[in-house]
Amino acid sequence: MDTENSTRENLSVGATLNQARLAAGMSINDVSQHIKLTAKQIEILESDGFDQLGMVFSRGFVRNYARLLGLDADALVRAIPKNPRNKNDPISIHDEHIPLTKGLSRHWLVVVAIVLGLIIVVPLLVYHWLSGDDTHIRIPPTNSAAMTKHAPAAQFVVQPAETPAAASNAAVTIPNASRSVPVAAAPAELAMQFAQDSWVDIRDANKQVVVSRLYHAGDTAKLSVTPPLSLIIGNAAHVKLSYNNKPIDITPHPPATVAKLTLP
User: Fewer CB within 10 A of the terminal residue: the chain, N end or C end?
Assistant: First the structure.
């Protein structure tokens, strides 16, 4: 059917295209393959739904469709109504909104919670690790002096006796910042017994090495030393120490295993 016959029969543009396609024995899929439109778009054209495709695009689609069917393309384009939709017709709106599922929302909440937890917890763990102490030394008080609580960073100092005989009654004290440590001129005797392997490092007042070695389980050591001395004893819980025949408890508190002390 040509355009003139369509006009005489008062057919719409869409109806004209539909009848011409059927007369040519073509399916909607055949037309779709030739003019590269989807089947849905062709159905919209044949139902005069030009406003759904947009008036500018509809004119181009109609022109290509008419040429395929051998119709007067210009006449059909001119016949497209300028206001194809009745103002009283309801406007259909297709909602393409894709809701966020509860599972997906819950997944992202868990991820955010884990990230925030790492940001808060990791710095706290690092700070706690860096600020940890090597050891806490417990030296029991004697009859002549009481033990005073001291900050973890300080070192414990044993007050030396003038003679070995008087050393058993020596007082255990903690030095104040403003108090100088007396230097003993006479040599002192230092004895150690090892129940397990232990590394021992002893240095004099000039930071010179007196002993720096690994002792094995069952070893004993007796040293004649000139104080003051700085001692670092590993695996201290399994080492017995005496200074001028006076036992000294160097057992560190868990979890530390290294004892640090000063013998003046």
Answer: N
CATH code of the region 157-263: 2.60.40
Residue-wise pLDDT tens digits, 207-216: 999 999 999 9
CATH no., domain 3-79: 1.10.260.40
> Is 215 within 8 Å of 170 (Cβ atoms)?
no
Work out the percent of the chain whose per-residue pLDDT is above 90: 29
Helices first, then strands: H and E counts in the chain: 8, 10
Domain segments of the chain: what residues? Answer: 3-79, 157-263
Is 206:182 a contact under the CB 8 Å cutoff? no
70: CB partners within 8 A, 6+ apart: 2, 20, 24
* Residue 243 identity: Y
Beta-bridge partner residues of 65: none
